[in-house]
């Protein structure tokens, strides 16, 4: 790869970080690992071609052009979190992935489709998803729980934060966020 290609890839990954909270390569690899998929299966569930998924992962392409695909990514992130915290079994995750695959972006995913409110500010759910994504890009859910357990005796509030945002369900994290804003 020449210098111009490296610069283009770095720029694409930085754009991905600003748009999606992290480079898509890291996000997609985590979904593959957490949901027990391969790249071809992930591409099929998202409604992307395998070459397009590869281009997004490598930074050759920066943006997911189809909003329904972005919503499917968000749905899979939620599902991966539920698998990680044990609230969804592997078998149930497989059937839920089929629902995500069939979704057109509006009917199944209405709760995640709105990312800003009427003033243009990010919604609570979007802020929570950003926090979850950041924590989950740093460590696996099991490691986050271990860290929370270590902190619990001396810093119970911080331990709770790690558990809720690092390994909990998005709905629980939204409730935690809202409870701590006042």
Automatic annotation (TrEMBL):
Residues 104-121 have a biased composition (Polar residues). InterPro entries: Cro/C1-type_HTH, Lambda_DNA-bd_dom_sf. Residues 102-121 are annotated as: Disordered. This is Transcriptional regulator.
